[in-house]
Amino acid sequence: MTEFLQALHGYTFPGSWALLFPTPLALATLILFIWSLAPAFKGQVGAGFLGWLRLTWVLTLLPAVTGIIMAVGGGKVPSSVAAPAEVQQDLCGRVAHLTRYCLPADPVRDMEHWMYSGFTLLSLLALEGLLRGRWVDNRWGLKLLPVITLFLYGCVYMVGRVAVLPGNSAGA
Q1: TM spans, by residue (predicted)?
Q2: Is there a domain that residue 3 lies in?
Q3: Are 62 and 8 in contact (CB under 8 A)?
Q4: In a domain, 71, yes or no
Q5: What's the pLDDT tens digit per position in 23-80?
């Protein structure tokens, strides 16, 4: 069961396109950002945009729920813990407090992963509020759509980045 949760939570696209959108959620938010330019200029939101926003919610909640389940079970992001010695030897050729990606372990990255995940959820909630016209007039709200969706894409991108790459306190 744990392997299934890890596979579902940590799915990434292979190849060089992964630098632009490493996960299905990152791809969905990038498309949402590009799509948000049209409502910002037209002044109205179509059913397709709302449908894509709902798909983005689903793609957000799948890794969020699986991540919470794994965290309750004691799991942490791969960049924050050293891999077992035999895994380090097999993958990296040496044992030196390295992650499964052969990079120095950085314990701070686990909290950063939670922080960016929280910003992702808050951004989606802000989008919903703006589209419903709850905080500001719909015209002003639609002009803010590209800003919020770009922030959303950045947060989603960083969720994946901090899970894999070490930060400034690597090896601490």
Answers
A1: 17-37, 49-72, 113-131, 143-164
A2: no
A3: yes
A4: yes
A5: 999 999 999 999 999 999 998 899 999 999 999 999 999 999 999 999 999 988 888 8
Contacting residues for 33 by C-beta, under 8 A, at least 6 apart: 146, 149, 150, 152, 153
Residues ≥6 apart with Cβ < 8 Å to 153:
26, 29, 30, 32, 33
Rounded to whole angstroms, the Cα distance separating 163 from 109 reads 7
Residue 121 · residue 64 · CB < 8 Å: yes
Per-residue pLDDT, 164: 82
User: Tokens 């601490």 identify what position?
Assistant: 172
If DSSP codes are grouped into helix, strand and coil, which group holds residue 98?
strand
DSSP per-residue string spanning 18-52: GGT--SHHHHHHHHHHHHHHHHHHHS---HHHHHH
Token representation of residue 150: 């770009």
Residue 14 lies in a domain: no
Give 82's DSSP letter. Answer: P
At how many degrees (to 10) do helices 138-164 and 109-132 cross? 160
Number of folded domains in the chain? 1
Q: Rounded to whole angstroms, how far apart are CA atoms 100 and 56?
A: 29
> pTM for the whole thing?
0.89
Does residue 8 sit within a domain?
Answer: no
Domain assignment of residue 80, given as a range: 22-164
